[in-house]
Amino acid sequence: MPKHLAFLVAISALALCGCTSLSHLEQREYKSLEFQGVSLQHPAGNYTPPNNAILAGALNLFPGFGNFYLAFGKGSDGTHAVYGVVNLLFWPLSIIWSVPEAAYDAIQLNKSDMLYFYRYAPEGKKALEELGIHLE
Length: 136
What we know:
Oligomer: single chain
């Protein structure tokens, strides 16, 4: 296999596996909260999602900016810095996959951050207790 083709395959694989996902436990906990009326759209207490999905997607119209937005700050995932570099290298072609990927990842990072808030932050625990909700 020629070197440039191997490089392209490796970069494509990295770009395609760039989506953030919740663990099985997090998916189950989030579904349980949704069933009880608590979600990103209807949080309990004073929870505010740290990432804006529309902003993350829109920023990836520029080379990797949306991924850099998701890589730093509250509720961030540092691996997005790597995806940002990959998207920078393949810009403007990377717009095809990076815009929806960044928007999706922002939502997944918000879900993970919300679960962390309700599991560990005193005000998050209290908000769920007031509603009679307990995480597994």
